[in-house]
Amino acid sequence: MPDRRQGERRGTDRRKAAPKIRTTRDEVINAAKTFQWKGQLTDWTAIVEDQELPARPFLLKVAKAMENNSITGEEAAVILSDLGFEVRYKGAIVPWEDMPA
What we know:
- The protein is built from three helices and four strands.
- By secondary structure, it is an alpha+beta fold.
- The chain has one domain (25-98).
- A four-stranded antiparallel sheet has the order 2-1-3-4.
- The longest helix has 10 residues, at 73-82.
- It is globular, with a radius of gyration of 12 Å.
């Protein structure tokens, strides 16, 4: 397994706007322990505690947000990447420096 990144490594110049969903790395890790996904994985996924999880549905659960929240899968992936988690698009690892700003 690749080295794990330690939380919030992205510089402030990469992200100007505040994220639509605020959460912490610890909240994400704790939620991963009980999150269960039975459907097909989405295009954007994140590796949390050695599990590949769908970025948007998982982040909505972490933030206790409504399913109709306007956040996209890409935005969820950026938030999870900002928190130091490995993010994938259609199975390919996306380095944090290549994530959309």
